[in-house]
Amino acid sequence: MTITALYKIFLDYSNVCTDSRKIEKGCLFFALKGANFDGNKFAEQAIQQGAAYAIADDKSLSVNEKIIIVDDVLTTLQKLAHHHRKQFDIPVIGITGSNGKTTTKELISSVLESHYPTHYTKGNFNNHIGVPLTLLAMPADTEVAIIEMGANHIGEIDFLCQIAAPTHGLITNVGAAHLEGFGSIEGVKKGKGELYQYLENNRGLAFINKTEEHLQEMAGDNLYKVLYTKSIEPDLNVPIFETKLVAAEPFVEIAYLSKMGISQSIKSQLIGLYNFNNIMTAVTLGRYFKVPYEKIKQSIENYIPSNNRSQIVQKEGNKFLLDAYNANPTSMAKALESFANYSEKNKIAILGDMLELGAFSTKAHSEIIDLAQKLGIEILTVGKEFAKSNRKGVKHFEDTSSLKDWFWKQEFVDVFFLLKGSRGIGLERLLKE
């Protein structure tokens, strides 16, 4: 079956499902295969449970007229998503970066959807399966789309761009993330820079944060650009978007000048100086796409972080900055530097392993401990990687469970804790009953 023919079916049955446990009546079930499962085995069951059609690549299933046999289910899903994307003549904003891309995506989405019908990546659906599913969920009335793109190897961002066809894009930053896959910072720059290359080849536009290292160099001279930066005092005569940091404690507050020269201020509910760039980016895109100031302000001020990202949790007489969704050497260093500047007298950082660093891991963990000690921050470390670099006077735990067993037997009172670590360490479990 051709993609065009399959798309006609999709228009009648646009609810796409890839999980046989979540079949809904009238959905299209794509029988994906993985390392430990084969969706083909559930194709007939999906039909029995109410799926309109199942798309499979096991030819032995062809006796069922409701099972559409294709050469490869994943490739078909990706091609169908691209075909659906091409029906929309709208701004499609691709977002990638080493740190902050999900928070930035959520802030931009909050700002733009206050003024336009907006579709955006939910959760972390940012890979070769998540991006197609995000695109296929895009409603007909969408006026702007925001697609998050994740990668840990060269070539992945380019591949996702071929599917999503972004017209606009931004890289939040380039840091020491996924070094096991990218090999080096140069590899990260090349991999993330594939978004810029796609935009340049297709006459797209990139939003470039001048305060972030590497981005202008990566963008080159032939890419259409909108520049924005942090300023001491915004100046309307400067041909770039400028944003001023007003305060970083207790929450990030920013200001910028309107076209009338009026200072506009926004007080967020985001903690941590590292969130300034995320807010500045969202404000810049709101201004570029002509979202009224009051809507930008309300969107940023009403945004409350969730999912273990920059969350403030009060528990047992102590305060926790829960930023344990993910971690790499760059984000960990920024979190520690920001944490050191808070005025609370009693501060302790609980640091979990940074994963996927390959040969760089031991050195990176050692440097983080050195940085914490240089900043004068008391730390507790968790995980096998930190164990290799442990220092005298630093209390270490094998895993989060052993930390939890010890932690709640202590009598901490009025202490400000930072919880920062990679997803696989699960530091948020420390705060669960």
Question: How would you sum up this structure, described in words?
Answer:
This protein is of the alpha/beta class and 433 residues long. The chain has 3 domains: 3-73, Udp-n-acetylmuramoylalanyl-d-glutamate--2,6- Diaminopimelate Ligase, Chain: A, domain 1 (3-Layer(aba) Sandwich), CATH 3.40.1390.10; 88-302, Mur-like, catalytic domain (UDP-N-acetylmuramoyl-L-alanine:D-glutamate ligase), CATH 3.40.1190.10; 311-431, Mur ligase, C-terminal domain (Protein-Tyrosine Phosphatase, Chain A), CATH 3.90.190.20. The chain is built from 16 helices and 19 strands. It has helices at residues 3-12, 43-48, 73-85, 101-113, 130-136, 156-164, 179-182, 185-192, 194-201, 215-219, 276-288, 293-302, 329-340, 361-374, 384-387, 400-407; strands at residues 16-17, 28-30, 53-56, 67-69, 92-96, 118-120, 144-148, 168-171, 205-209, 224-231, 241-247, 253-257, 263-267, 311-315, 318-323, 347-352, 378-382, 395-397, 416-420. Strands 6-7-5-8-9-10-11-12-13 form a 9-stranded mixed sheet, sandwiched between helices. The chain has a 6-stranded mixed sheet with strand order 14-15-19-16-17-18. A hairpin with a 2-residue loop joins strand 14 (311-315) and strand 15. The longest helix has 14 residues, at 361-374. It starts with a helix and ends in a 13-residue tail after the last strand. 45% of the residues are buried. The mean pLDDT is 95.
